[in-house]
Specification:
The chain is mostly beta strands. 0% of the residues lie in helices and 33% in strands. A 5-stranded antiparallel β-sheet has the order 4-3-2-1-5, with no helix packed on it. Strand 2 and strand 3 form a beta hairpin. It is globular and about 40 Å long. The two termini are 13 Å apart.
Length: 89
């Protein structure tokens, strides 16, 4: 895993289950607001599917989360300059 900064509109996945919100590890959301100067993030989970299905893209949950509960998803190859970093929880 590479160290990176979480930014507005990043696509993320949960790294933990959040039973109180009916959200589970692996669910995908979007960072919609930076909270506490970037120490936490408002993440929106919606039923959008890229226009490939009949869902309406409605938000079903919006939760404030700390960075240790999420990981940024990357859709491009990692830079060859990236140095892997071991992260433990």
């Amino acid at each position: 895993m590479t160290k990176n900064t979480i930014k507005l509109l990043d696509v993320i996945a949960l790294t933990v289950d959040l039973h109180e919100y009916n959200l589970y590890r692996g669910q995908v959301g979007t960072v919609v607001e930076l909270l506490a100067g970037g120490a936490a993030f408002e993440v929106e989970f919606s039923d959008a599917c890229g226009g490939l299905c009949l869902r309406n893209g409605r938000t079903y949950e919006s939760v404030g989360l700390r960075p240790e509960k999420i990981m940024v998803l990357h859709f491009e190859p990692a830079s060859p300059d990236s140095v892997p970093e071991m992260v433990t929880v």
